[in-house]
């Protein structure tokens, strides 16, 4: 056996395959010698993939500077349109501002909230809802124009962008399997598929649902601009910059999914002049609008004093987000962020969830959410559920703390025997019941406020103003509970709402992007390529169905494997941020015999990168792609990382676990490191290129 060993993937004809790995365990071995390289008698490295997402070190994804922010329009002046989108859990808003070379844009006169929505709706927001059901009334099946009497409606999808915990993931998988069984039955009965409402939502990921909803929003905006400002759209006319909002404490995974959905929905076929995309946390955008709103209407800022601190509480549908600032100057206005932004999952949808749990315990056959076809892990409302939640929404908005209500039930829904004070078809809801629905959201909101007061006090500041915004803050019961808490905390604290708190975030996002009020919007960069690791996979009949796949027997552990599969760790057009590169890791296993250590054998990790939009599952050529082999000496692998395994036939071999870490920086540069027991075994670009490519 020769002293130098190379993995099978170094042959050109074997570097013709790439795939996303399914998590099957395969162990790469080493070739016997250079001549054996032609025999395909061994397998190369094989990644055992973890979730291919950047690590989260617990810090905020964007480290906005704590330096003073002068609330002025930037000196540079150019023609452009600044469009902001606030994709919310319950509602979505659009706002925009035109900038010309003739004059600087003014607030509030030049800031426009989009109101020309599908279905003749002129509201300042559109419901974040979509349905894949057939309609009997020609409805568009999204936003306000959904055939609610005959449709399953997907809502609150934004909450699903956050990575699920293992138990939640298992529940979602169970729901998906339920729906897939129905699809399988429909495939066997073609007429049933024609006659029935096929639940397409179970085939959609949350990210795809968001993208498809936002694509409809994008089309609405395009049609509006073509009617109202045709010179602002089209090839080579006016640049379009965008600002995308996100909750305060959202992980990279969720922000990246939102970013990708927006870029796909507002594509360059429809918007050829789309240029920059910025990101801004929702509470910071809200703070910018709130302060500017107070400036525009002087009656609201008579109590402001330099040195005062204020906290903005953006109480939306899914999350409640907070940020604290200090007024350093009033004329000209200058403010400074104090501490960190924070947030929690306690928005208005949690009031709805408490109501749903309550009504299901007091009725029989209510059927608010979809259970018969599976949800795919989504929140799916049945027609009855949509009707009931709309009725409750009216009660919720008007509730001030003392009102009792009576809910009219659908004809086929009966009261539970435990309800003794109702009549058939009518469900009484006491004021105490209503207050119980609100309790979790209010308690958590006050807890978040209390933490900001403590944090600010530690730094020597005093919060004397609470500015409430967002849909939940428009409720008088919520607003008055916060006022009551503030009064007991300190009688000097004022609690106020801006003139348009419901759209404060999307309007503040426009101002942030324009630099009016704060320069806190971060310019996003798309990842330029796909980055991955090539290896082998143990054969899985459910995955490896392609008859052209070459199957070999591993020379070390004897299992059947297929070569040159790729785990794509980082994807083209993933979001890259200035202060947080994308970091992805992948666990790998290398198997070898004891004599490979003694004779100085070498193995390789095969790195791949491509800028194609849809990388193939295999057959990746070297043309216009980057393929490199990172060289690792077997005798340098730490013994602490090795375990000895004995096959059923009695042959002993060694397995070493390693971690591949890929990093893509804001500049577009990247690096790859292979680690074993915290020691660096190989790196690239410093690593050696594959000479067989």
UniProtKB/TrEMBL annotation:
Residues 1-10 have a biased composition (Basic residues). Residues 1-50 are annotated as: Disordered. Residues 32-42 have a biased composition (Polar residues). InterPro entries: ATPase_NBD. This is Uncharacterized protein. It comes from Podospora didyma.
